[in-house]
Amino acid sequence: MLQKQESATEDSTTLVNGITEVFAEMHLPNLAEPKIYLGMPMPILKQFHKALIAQHTEDKERLYRNRLKYAGVTKERTDQAFKWDDDTYPMARPESIEEALSTGFIREHKNLVVIGPPGVGKSMLVTIAVCKAIRNGFSAKYRTAHGIATGLSEAKTGNSLSGYIRMLSSCDVLAIDDLPFASFSAEGAQALFSIIDARYERKSTIITSNHSFGDWFAELPDKSMATAMVGRIAQEAIIVNMNGAKDMRLKHAVEMLGIAAETPGGKPSHFVFETAGNGGN
């Protein structure tokens, strides 16, 4: 009998600790006092603990979705969406992809640069990194280079340029997708440099580009600024080289067309594959 009472007490203590931990995580210290729940009947404690966990999980998921939207991520991506092996990206170091899929580089204030042709999965990899960052409590912004260039121009017109620059400079993770520096005017490039400079060794910047570092120099008219910009981005950055990879979007589209295109006899038609292979460059 005594053993049963001790076991019940242990179960009760475990539940009370679980309840107070949740309230502490919710930043409700007045409700995180164990004495409030001592003496509560076990069935009530169990139901209260279960309901509290469910509500807290729902609240966290809602907050996460709102933060994704605020960051500029239109669709959540997870590791499961990014399929790769040693043959997928022949020019990328496997450890660099593994680093990109972790949040360790964000904690160390390192940058991530993903280079390669269109359609090979650059944006997907970066979106996964941003989603993971947000899930782990980091603040993030996800913008295309064109969107930033437009935003800088509009902010200048509206006399809010300093605020816009401060917003992009202060977040823990800034992802700039599809960066051709040719998108920026001379003033825009200078503003972008001020953002990169403010983030240097303090925050993580993620960049995808179809062009190599050498091409970046050619796109920026001010060579001294180009050197400083590339230096701040590339120093101790994780580089994922996706050159040499197949166009995943085209492969997926061809496969979908191939499945859908069937002859009346039920046999797949090869016309769509021939068309896809012969049309355009």
Task: Give the helix/strand layout.
Elements (H helix, E strand, L loop, with lengths): L1 H24 L16 H30 L22 H7 L3 H4 L4 E4 L6 H14 L4 E5 H13 L3 H10 L2 E5 L8 H14 L4 E6 L3 H7 L3 H12 L3 E4 L6 H13 L10 H8 L3
Helix pairs in contact: 1-2, 6-7, 6-8, 7-8, 8-10, 9-10
Explain what this protein looks like in three dimensions.
The chain is of the alpha/beta class and 281 residues long. It has three domains: 2-71, no CATH class; 79-241, Rossmann fold (3-Layer(aba) Sandwich); 248-278, no CATH class. The protein is built from twelve helices and five strands. Helix 6 (145-157) packs antiparallel against helix 7 and helix 9 runs antiparallel to helix 10.
CATH architectural group of the largest domain: 3-Layer(aba) Sandwich
Structural class: alpha/beta
Identify low-pLDDT runs. 1-6, 259-281
The termini sit apart by: 82 Å
**Tally of separate helices:** 12
Query: Which percent range fits the helix content?
Result: 55-70%
The secondary-structure element order is: HHHHEHEHHEHEHHEHH
Q: Beta-strand level of the residues, as a percent range?
A: 5-15%
CATH class of the largest domain: Alpha Beta
The CATH H-level superfamily of the largest domain is: P-loop containing nucleotide triphosphate hydrolases
Name the features.
3 domains, 56% helix, 9% strand, Rossmann fold, 5-stranded parallel sheet, single chain, disordered N terminus, alpha/beta, 281 residues
